[in-house]
Amino acid sequence: MFARSILPSMGLALLLAACASLSPQLAPEAQFRAVNRIGWGATSAQLDDAARLGWPSYVEQQLHADPRKPLALAAAQAQINALKVQQRDVSELLLQVDTLRREQDKSASEDERKAARQAYQAQLNTLSRETAHRQLLRQIYSDQQLLEHMSWFWFNHFNVHQQKRELRALVADYEESALRPQALGSFRTLLGAVARHPAMLRYLDNDQNSAGKPNENYARELLELHTMGVDGGYTQKDVQELARVLTGFGTRLEPGAPKLRPDQARQYVRQGLFEFNPARHDFGDKLLLGHTIKGRGAAELDEALDLLVAQPATAHFVSQRLAMFFLSDTPPADLVARMAERFQRSGGRIDETLRVLLLAPEFAAAEPRKFKDPQHFIVSGLRAAYADQVIVNSQPVQAWLRRLGEGQYDKLTPDGYPLVAEAWNSAGQLGTRFELARALGSGPAALFKAESPEVSVSVPVPVPAPKPLLRSAWFEQHLAPRLSVGTRDALALAATPADWNALFLSAPEFMYR
Question: C-alpha angle 178/199/137, rounded to 5°?
Fold first, then answer.
């Protein structure tokens, strides 16, 4: 947090200059690969910035991103500002949704109950579409590409499924208040924010975890998926003890505190929708990973999280996942070891760990290549086609991602979407990609027609909708020299610009980053 919170602008400029002078610059071809890998697909503007600053200084600029910074394209930011999920507090949104849910049971007739159910689902679906639209606008148009890349990574790492209970009303705040603020900051702070967010507590049923009636769901995933990894060395007894630590951590929609004894009332904690209810907590001592945690209330969770972050297994697991996400399905073991060592020495600083990866020679190397999952494939296509032209309706894009099996916030299980190619390179997957490459390459007019009120704002919309121009100076300079003979021959056979676009988006060179 030091550099981001108190480093003055002049200090940051000096830091960038120092990085440029101390670190080797990349050759143009290597720099293109590095820029393409750091975010959701390289654009001309992004490549120009990296060339002007030099790769090391560009990395520092990206590592010091500000989650509060608006998008440079005013038309894109205006859409985000107009969304309900951006304007209204999560407690207000959830209360409105809960009121609609309760009306289902109060209605006198079946027709009224049906109408109430439809209104309830419609409101949740609106919030879901808005959240997905905001994410896509940021991924396509933000110049802080590393921040947007890492925001997606952490949501996937700390995955919740939006269709469970009322999570469609919570996901936007989960992304905005728990994940993005620490996406490049402290892993320990990030872990604590997730552990207290109602989206995670409801998704993994920890709001049902109480003394005498333990629920181990969140404790198990906290060890297996969030910190130490399945081979991290913990036992089933550690899962049980961590579940005891987590008793009483839940959510509360009703105003005020529940009725408690005076001694319990002094320990009660309420922050928005989150609550720690001491009446539901197991106050016995716990033995977690060989470490005794004295039973004393809410402070036990922070002690447990400190312990988990300090484990060498956590440093390795998080570093391995980061290297897999950015670089390779099987990243070099020595690079992962260097990242893990920096993670531990820095107390779990995400930016410090990423710096080792992003400045490593392997990051800009030609091999191995990373096969794009559906989100990378679709968003990189949109960035190539419409980097300077703001779409106003992302519902077609949301539908494309669902067709490809990677719908936003739709992963049912807590392990998140797979990061490896074998999950996404089947014949059926590629067939669908080719079909969607043709749709995107033709310039779907629906992207520029705001049919839904929740994404409709006063922004200039071209008439007719612009056609994507992928055969541009960007292509000729950076991609044309890298094309295989087979790809060049196929592109030469294109009868129309739309055909050329579809072939380019389907080419092996575009499928990898």
Answer: 60
Query: pLDDT of the chain along its 513 residues, tens only?
Result: 334 443 444 445 544 444 444 456 889 899 999 999 999 999 999 999 999 999 999 999 999 999 999 999 999 999 999 999 999 999 999 999 998 888 877 877 888 888 888 999 999 999 999 999 999 999 999 999 999 999 999 999 999 999 999 999 999 999 999 999 999 999 999 999 999 999 999 999 999 999 999 999 999 999 999 999 999 999 999 999 999 999 999 999 999 899 999 999 999 999 999 999 999 999 999 999 999 999 999 999 999 999 999 999 999 999 999 999 999 999 999 999 999 999 999 999 999 999 999 999 999 999 999 999 999 999 999 999 999 999 999 999 999 999 999 999 999 999 999 999 999 999 999 999 999 999 999 999 999 998 655 444 445 555 566 788 898 888 888 888 889 999 999 999 999 999 999 999 999 999 999
Burial of 439 (0-12, 13-18, 19+ CB in 10 A): middle
Residue linked to tokens 């121009």: 469
Nearest to 119 by CA among 105, 101, 93: 101
